[in-house]
Amino acid sequence: MPPVQDLRELLERLGLDALYITKPQNVRYLSGFPHPEDAEVLLTEEGAFLLTDPRYPEAERESRLPAKVLKREEKAALLSGLRGRVGFEAAHLPYARLMALREMAPVEWVPTEGAIEALRLKKAPEEVEAIRRAQALAERAFHHALTLLKPGVRERDVALEIEYFLKKEGAEGAAFPPIVASGVRGALPHAGASEKALEGGELVTLDLGARVAGYASDMTRTVALGQVDGPLKEAFFAVLEALESALELIKPGVEAKAVDARAREVLKARGLDRYFVHSLGHGVGLEVHEAPALSPYSGQGPGPHLGLVLEPGMVVTVEPGVYLPGVGGVRIEELVLVTEGGIELLSTLPRGWQAL
Amino acid sequence: MPPVQDLRELLERLGLDALYITKPQNVRYLSGFPHPEDAEVLLTEEGAFLLTDPRYPEAERESRLPAKVLKREEKAALLSGLRGRVGFEAAHLPYARLMALREMAPVEWVPTEGAIEALRLKKAPEEVEAIRRAQALAERAFHHALTLLKPGVRERDVALEIEYFLKKEGAEGAAFPPIVASGVRGALPHAGASEKALEGGELVTLDLGARVAGYASDMTRTVALGQVDGPLKEAFFAVLEALESALELIKPGVEAKAVDARAREVLKARGLDRYFVHSLGHGVGLEVHEAPALSPYSGQGPGPHLGLVLEPGMVVTVEPGVYLPGVGGVRIEELVLVTEGGIELLSTLPRGWQAL
Ligand SMILES: [Mn+2]
Ligand SMILES: [Mn+2]
């Protein structure tokens, strides 16, 4: 949670009298309230407070911000007291909710994008700690999953055991449905986990994260089930080299897209860059995918451009991959904290070739 | 999925040349596509088709509607061909996405609410079948959970075993995080499952649902762990009577709010109506909570008013509850299909007093 002073400066910078925050991850960031989808934060020059409804009588205790538990008409009365220019989160707020707000408070409603996300770019020590705890749990789940990888076991069974393990061990849950992609399915970067059974001689890609205190982790390993040779093994070592070259480049002041470019160059030297069909990495925090983007398109396209240059306190994944259609795929993903001197690895698993 | 003719009539009734559907449950309803959060449906006088992106090369196979797999600029080109009045889903579409659409297609964008939800009110036989399968799985999970209810077991462990059971047995997942609320926590209707351990002499409320083929189920039982007497046992039988009175009333042509009122009257006769702090029930389908609402406020407030009168093919819960602050609570929830003659119970568990 940023100091109140930062929030006042934010209003000033945006030329706003107030900011009405509805995106759950931003509400959680500002308040710590664990039911952010049923709450909002109203930020004014007098300060910030949480708004929620009578389903949450204990909001005051669960929120770091002062909380107001309001019925619908009480909330309308409160909003009708707003004056001047009031910002809303344009990428999140549905049109009908904006119309309802306009009716309750006939002020100038001003679309904003990325205002709170910009504050979330650099993680505070307690945020890094939550991500670290999530990653530690995910690594234990990964070790557990390795014991299950046998021919005949279905991908979805492995994914289910990972989720169960994470929750049993105290995570709020998996940060996202675990990916277990074996054999030819490894060529689909967003494959999920299917009914397919693992077979000997296949690569298996495991991409998983845990959620702790609202914060996510994210990492990937690709392991061989039995003997695997040929183009997939070559791809593995190309991906590994791309990963390590990219990690070497990361430090404060480096452009996010330059890190992506470095990994792509390594793959290009092996003729594999056209099989690397996604971005190199992304920020991780209250969202699994957040700014900054380590991407060739970093700074392009619509939306706010956050994190174009790396700074200490950012937490990002570095995850090159090679996807050979009809053959299979490899992805290796590390989770790193950008530090003053370069990086600290938050993922601590060995990353070399591993045959089970 | 409604016949194409119904969709054409919908456009005509709304006075629209096209309708751009973004709410995932509506996209799934129209197309069957299992990744509806990454897709839209465009409905024009020529027909309906699914739009998605290159992450889903197999969309054509996975969608009942013709599918177009488009890159961003291809989608922009397609939308730029729109003419006339084009509806969008105001309760779902974020303001920024509407602005982007306006830029791609300078037509008259018209807010609509509840257009597809209205079609979803009456379930087709195959939809009822999916809900039935979900409910059957949930009932098996309930029986499994009963074997776990012992003093010392934490609520969250029971909830986790329910989720695991559901997925292991083939559900897409739990329809919502299972509620396991014991002792005084039973007084919180939306309590979730906590670290609290069960104790002898408590009531335990289990509220759970499964998801199958996109469709949810939802049901609740409250059971006694050991000996429970006094006001909670009295509340149980009052809730049971309220439930059964409400079930008797349900048939086509009855107002949804009259069913709610009937249950409230029964509780009032026992002086317990002020402890019944939520609506009597809700529709169930692709969403756990959808229209119709069996509620005193049915037909009031903002938003479209769908399902004010019950019709054959609607699937609703009936779930009276009594919540005694600081003491505990009781809720019993049945899942029913409205038929020509009255109801068919989709939930088949015994609903009487059960002490473990
Ligand atoms: Mn990732
Ligand atoms: Mn319910």
From TrEMBL, chains A, B:
Organism of provenance:
Thermus oshimai JL-2
CDD domains tied to this protein: APP-like
- Transmembrane ranges, per UniProt, are none
Output the SUPFAM superfamilies linked to this UniProt entry. Answer: Creatinase/aminopeptidase (SSF55920), Creatinase/prolidase N-terminal domain (SSF53092)
By what name is this protein known?
Xaa-Pro aminopeptidase
Give the record's keywords alphabetically.
Answer: Aminopeptidase, Hydrolase, Metal-binding, Protease
Q: Does the keyword Hydrolase apply?
A: yes
InterPro entries cross-referenced by the UniProt entry: Creatin/AminoP/Spt16_N (IPR029149), Creatinase/aminopeptidase-like (IPR036005), Creatinase_N (IPR000587), Pept_M24 (IPR000994), Pept_M24_MAP (IPR001714), Peptidase_M24B (IPR050659), Peptidase_M24B_aminopep-P_CS (IPR001131)
Enumerate the GO terms in the molecular function aspect.
aminopeptidase activity; metal ion binding; metalloexopeptidase activity
Q: Where would I find the Creatinase N-terminal domain in this sequence?
A: 4-121
**Where does the record place the Peptidase M24 domain?**
129-340
